[in-house]
Specification:
Length: 503
């Protein structure tokens, strides 16, 4: 992997990407395209087709047909080999993919490089599972019967992605789904089509047959067409809770299965016996890494009143030194917000919070620096005097904004942590091992980190309680989320049974 990357010149012609339907790289039938704006320069750097109903229908139809071809007939071990090969190809193309992702969403190139380095692990892990999807032979329920189960692919799966980490979120879905033998129509977010389209070129090179993986690009309307298509057997969606509700309703109309990975408002809970230096570092990582644009952002800091002032001053001191700048810069610590509307949303939440009585400890505005004027930057922001009932404590901002809420004892920390419609992640900072486990068991969240924050792995289940989602991704069971269990009953007797008696 090279250590330098070149940004396209700001006045360069936008790069044109096409989408993948079956074996073909095509534009939309309507001829319409949409633009992707680079969040650092504020300029259009790429365009992609705006897929309509005919495009989505073609992609779903071809995906459905792929099961009747070599993909459906392929031995599971061979399927697994090709999935692992896809992982190797990602490793070879990692630099290009990281650059495209950073150009699209403005995240730090060094973070994207880190993600891309980890990504082959998903394809290796799940590729290894393709030939281990064993059914069971239950003990004979009656004499002269053989019963066994099979795990068959659920069918065509619509994968709908957000803009913050397109290829990582895609891997959570695609790697186990391919292992299960499914086919896919992927819809990346309108802000970030490029890396997914570049990735899709690797699929054929890995020997995965045409039609198994299709990519349609467009906005939420394209996503809606996909979820409503009767040929889609399952939708796996990552995005906001508001869109997830729409996706679930649309999928319900034809009883498509859903996996939903939705929003969060995760608490980082710091007790007075915690190592405050480590906690401060974890809180900064939880809310300011990726400019807070992560679903598990530790956007609520619950801190014991005894250490409140000291912790807030440590975090504020660190926040003031965070280096904002070019996402391609080796020393940049925080890049821009991904797009203008999201920047406006982040800024509006600071106004909402201060109107409700919160006070700005640091940040709270766009940076003054002229070099950052074109990009969608927002300062790392800490808000104190927050009550958990305020909108800033209850609603997801998806930006570098931390709401600080004091607590007096363990009981009230747990109550505040759980008094929220979300349940995606939580951090617990304490040196008391008994308290760590007690609180970890009581907090309603799909992932709890103790003296750590924001770690994920292909081998560890991930997902949300409450309105943070339905289902789990990653871990051994993820492949099952892409299968239907079939029970086969075989009569071994030579007798004919009474047709009017059950069983
Ligand atoms: P959105 O919900 O706005 O969009 C997500 C995807 O859904 C996009 O591709 C979008 O298209 C599409 N979409 C929008 N409306 C519909 C619809 N009615 N039917 C079908 N598809 C639709 O989320 P963001 O892209 O803004 O991502 C941020 C959100 O994602 C945050 O809430 C964050 O917490 C969550 N997230 C959750 C994660 C998790 O694992 N739990 C991980 C990462 C993010 P388009 O944008 O092109 O219009």
């Amino acid at each position: 992997m090279t250590e330098t990357a070149t940004r396209p010149a700001v006045d360069a012609e936008p790069r044109e990407f096409d989408m993948l339907i079956g074996a073909d790289w095509v534009g939309a039938r309507s001829g319409e395209r949409f633009a992707s704006v680079n969040p650092f320069t504020g300029r259009v750097w790429a365009t992609a087709p705006a897929a309509g109903a005919a495009d989505v229908d073609a992609a779903v139809t071809l995906a459905g047909k792929a099961l009747d071809g070599p993909w459906g007939a392929m031995p599971a071990a061979e399927r697994g080999r090709r999935i692992r090969r896809l992982g190797e190809l990602i490793a070879e193309q990692a630099e290009e993919l990281a650059v495209l992702e950073s150009l699209d969403n403005g995240k730090l190139l060094r973070e994207m490089r880190g993600q891309l380095k980890a990504l082959p692990g998903w394809y290796e892990y799940f590729g290894g599972m393709a030939d281990k999807l064993e059914g069971v032979t239950p003990p004979d329920p009656k004499p002269n019967l053989l019963v066994y189960t099979r795990h068959e692919p659920v069918g065509v799966v619509g994968l709908i992605l957000p803009w913050n980490s397109p290829l990582l979120i895609l891997a959570n879905k695609l790697a186990p789904g391919l292992a299960a033998g499914c086919m896919f129509v992927i819809k990346p977010a309108e802000q970030t089509p490029a890396s997914v389209l570049a990735f899709a070129k690797l699929v054929a090179r890995a020997g995965i047959p045409d039609g198994v993986v299709n990519v349609v690009t467009g906005d939420g309307r394209t996503g809606q067409l996909l979820t409503a298509h009767p040929g889609v057997a399952k939708v796996s969606f990552t995005g906001s809770t508001a869109s997830g509700i729409k996706v679930m309703k649309s999928a319900a109309d034809h009883v498509a299965r859903v996996t939903l990975e939705l929003g969060g408002k995760s608490p980082n809970i710091v007790f007075d016996d915690a190592d405050l230096e480590a906690a401060a570092n974890g809180v900064v990582a939880g809310i300011f890494a990726a400019a807070g644009q992560t679903c598990v952002a530790g956007s609520r800091l619950l801190v014991h009143r005894r250490v409140h002032d000291e912790l807030v001053s440590r975090i504020a001191a660190r926040a003031r030194t965070i280096r904002l700048g070019d996402p391609f810069g080796e020393t940049t610590e925080m890049g821009p917000i991904a797009f203008q509307e999201q920047l406006d949303k982040v800024a509006s939440y600071v106004d909402i919070a201060t109107a409700e009585g919160a006070s700005v400890v640091t940040g709270g505005k766009r940076p003054d620096s002229p070099e950052l004027a074109r990009g969608f930057f927002f300062e790392p922001t800490i808000l104190a005097d927050v009550d958990n009932s305020m909108r800033i404590a209850q609603e997801e901002v998806f930006g570098p904004v931390l709401a600080v809420i004091p607590f007096d004892d363990e009981e009230s920390a747990v109550t505040i942590a759980n008094d929220i419609p979300f349940g995606l992640g939580a951090g617990i900072w304490t040196d008391n091992v008994r308290r760590a486990h007690r609180v970890a068991h009581r907090v309603k969240a799909g992932s709890v980190w103790v003296n750590e924050y924001r770690l994920t792995s292909y081998s560890v289940p991930f997902g949300g309680f409450k309105q943070s989602g339905i289902g789990r991704e990653n871990g051994m069971d993820a492949v099952r989320e892409y299968t239907e269990t079939k029970s086969v009953w075989v009569n071994l007797s030579d007798d004919t049974r009474d047709p009017f008696v059950l069983g």
